[in-house]
Amino acid sequence: MKAQELRETFLNFFKDRGHTVVGSSGLVPRGDPTLLFTSAGMVQFKKLWSGESPISYRRAVSIQKCLRASDLDEVGRRVKYNTFFEMLGNFSFGDYFKLDAIKWAWEFMTKVLKLSEDKLYVSVLSDDTEAYKIWRDEVDIDNKKIFKLGKDDNFWLPAGGTGACGPCSEIFYDLSEDVGCGKPDCRPGCKCDRFPEVWNLVFPQYDSQPDGTLKPLKNRGIDTGMGLERLLMVVQGKKSLFETDLFNPIVDEVCKICDVKYEENKVSINIIADHIRALTFAVAEGVYPSNVSRGYLLRRLLRRAQREMYEFGVKKPFLYKLVPIVADVMRDCYPELVSRRESVALIIKSEEESFLRTLGQGLVVFNEVLSGLKSRTIPGDAVFKLYDTYGFPPELVEELATHKGFKVDKVGFDKVMNEAKERTKMTGKFKDSAKVDWTEIFPITVTDFVGYKVLRTRSKVAKWRQVNDNIEIVLDRSPFYAEAGGQIGDCGKIYNSSMEVEVLDTKKLGDLYVHIGKLKKGNINNKMVICEVDKDRRKAVEQNHTGTHLIHSALRKVLGDHVHQDGSLVEADRFRFDFTHFKPLSNYEIEKVESLVNGWILENITVKTYVTSFDAAVDSGATAIFGEKYGDKVRVVRIGDISMELCGGTHVRSTAELIFLKIISETGIHTGIRRVEVLTGATAIKRLMGYESDLVSISDRLGVEPSQVKDKVYNLIEDNKKLRDRLMELERVSILNLVPEILSKKEVIDGIDVLISKVPTENIEILRILADKLRVGSQRVGVLCSVINGKPVFITFVSDDLKSQIKASIIANKIGKLAGGGGGGKDTIGQAGGKDTSELDYVLGHVPRLISEIIK
């Protein structure tokens, strides 16, 4: 039975017993901030047991995509673990309970799959007499094959820590004594590979609360989970997951390209095959390798797999070539992989290229660290250097260390890491670090923010203080928006008849709003004050903040659903928006994004804001940022059918208020993350008018109409290129005329002609051409030098008959050190650079000695 047939057999079995077939939810859990990835089939059904969502069916069956890293160290080494896997499951919500779940499970295993009853064993929670009696009396299993285990084994806690949970009963399969521990008491529950747990029947009875207490579930029921890969291994009579038809094509391709044999490299090949499946599925859902959250796990998987390939001698991107094979193997059940395989492969290749640039050097540094240790523990600062400089996740360093018999100072690493994070925190984050006491007028714990509705209020000063040249004021209520969510704080003024403060910024200190500014008149007093936000500046900020939402939606429409916000900064004169994407945007893509947004601006779409519960917002399709902390109530910003996001920032009332939007730059800030800088409103119009003015000036200078400037400039560029090529050729001919003169001034050392010369050129290519000409012959070594961009540049060369005896790269390295720079290259041609042109004659004067030392 192949994988797809097994999937269909399972679904049909429970469909015939009244279950609704429910499709797999995404690997990224929707609306569940407790999980990085979907780790079990029950995740999408959590609210059905608790009664939080209406139930349209009482019985369900599904095949769920899952991703777990809890057993990552065992993947590849043990026969039963995967990071990505498919979980077969049948579910009951206030319908059938233990009896039906147990009887159907046994029927499916023994009657449908025809697995030998002699190979099957079960376990129950030690005090679950009900489940025990069902197995013994209803299913008629010998009580010697029923094992009572404790809560660590047979009480199932919910994915994410909260939600439905309860006792469970597991079905085990006796794989083979060959893969067991060999101990006489080896039995189900043993940590060896002999008895893999094939099916876990969970009986949800309780609702686990955030504080750990258990409340009775509104809809008790059934939650079963059976790994397709493990079941397939058993059905196909294999002794490892990686020997089934789900992995064979991937394993074969790895062996073929790496030119290795599976039997001799099982662990490494298993790791590669497992990790590329996880990467392919996760990237296809829009998760990119990065240094945070879900992306960090993907980066860790990718770099683990790359290290294994590097050990095979594969030092070029390779994993991406396996993506089409994964897509082909899984196409029957997940056809979306086929349509996305090219974009997934490009993302993985980009990440591979990034890591491979430093992998080899990092491994050298790792080995150097080990060789210099006086103990068997790698210090935390060394682990941090490998992470920060060479991109080695600390878990990868630990794996490498363990392989060589070393340990890692995790506490020391965490200390250095935290210190680094503190140093790089955003400077705009306000902390009450000033050693100045507040002058308190009346106690206050919360500032009432009213700035969504009004920009001018009457308020009371609760407390204030002088910090250097600034005044900091806390009010009982304020229309000033405090910096948050990427949006800068408001400016304006606070005043009454006897004092005036120019507000330069507004920050949050807990639930208080701190207004930072300059005292322009009088002294702070306890009189009522008038607060006025700079409305023109606020308007510009609102235009830009709404612009971030529109840009986000446009990028997703143009580039794909993998695009997600990774950060933003909203200012008055511009905004920047960081997003996940694997390559630079083309001019066409940028124009398409601009066109979409400006079309929405012209449509004058209403921007609505409202407050609702977090669950209601997410269920309605609002976008939430993973890792952000949201309260029970959240603010939703909705722009027609274009955008709906959770956002606490201030916004315009309609898209037309943006007037116009223009992207002025697009760059990459690190692997998989791009950044656009954007203008809106009057600033964007002003930029366009500047472009128009520049175009008119250029057209006047060229003596053509503005519409003809493009063709005229292209023609000038082409003419300029031809002239440069002509000058290059003339210089090349001129420089080559120096060959007889340089040869005539040769110095002979141990029978070798040493050629040394300063060359009057500022073109390094000309210098290389001359070196290539001079090294044609026998027994020749030379150094040419020119001053290029104000710095000395040296080209070293060696004739072919001497390259096994003298290396041009070594000569370049020694000259570079002498000149205060560096050097290197190949056997026959090398290059070095220096810092000071005044030392040029000094360096060239030492060339004969350096070459003499190399010869000896």
Task: Give the tags.
856 residues, alpha+beta, eleven-stranded mixed β-sheet, eight-stranded antiparallel β-sheet, 36 strands, 38% helix
Describe the structure.
By secondary structure, the protein is of the alpha+beta class. Helices cover 38% and strands 24% of the residues. The chain contains 24 helices and 36 strands. The strands form seven sheets. Strands 1, 2, 3, 4, 5, 6, 7, 8, 9, 10 and 11 form an eleven-stranded mixed beta sheet that branches. An eight-stranded antiparallel beta sheet has the order 14-17-18-22-21-20-23-16. A hairpin with a 4-residue loop joins β24 (565-570) and β25 (575-580). The radius of gyration is 35 Å and the shape is globular. The model is unreliable at 425-429 (pLDDT under 50).
Record the SSE blueprint.
Elements: H1 3-15, E1 20-22, H2 46-50, E2 59-67, E3 84-93, H3 98-112, E4 120-125, H4 129-138, E5 146-149, H5 151-154, E6 155-156, E7 163-173, E8 197-202, E9 206-208, E10 214-216, E11 221-227, H6 228-235, H7 248-258, H8 266-284, H9 293-311, H10 323-329, H11 336-371, E12 377-378, H12 380-390, H13 394-403, E13 407-408, H14 410-423, E14 439-440, E15 448-449, E16 456-459, E17 461-467, E18 470-475, E19 477-478, E20 492-496, E21 499-509, E22 512-521, E23 529-533, H15 535-559, E24 565-570, E25 575-580, H16 587-602, E26 607-613, H17 614-619, E27 633-639, E28 643-646, E29 661-670, E30 673-680, H18 681-702, H19 709-736, H20 739-744, E31 747-749, E32 752-758, H21 764-774, E33 780-788, E34 791-798, H22 808-818, E35 823-825, E36 829-833, H23 840-845, H24 847-855
Parallel strand pairs: 1-2, 4-5, 12-13, 15-19, 32-33
Antiparallel strand pairs: 2-3, 3-11, 4-7, 6-7, 7-8, 7-9, 8-11, 9-10, 14-17, 16-23, 17-18, 18-22, 20-21, 20-23, 21-22, 24-25, 25-30, 26-27, 27-28, 29-30, 31-32, 33-34, 34-36, 35-36
Helix pairs in contact: 3-4, 7-8, 8-9, 8-11, 9-11, 10-11, 11-12, 12-14, 15-16, 19-21, 22-24
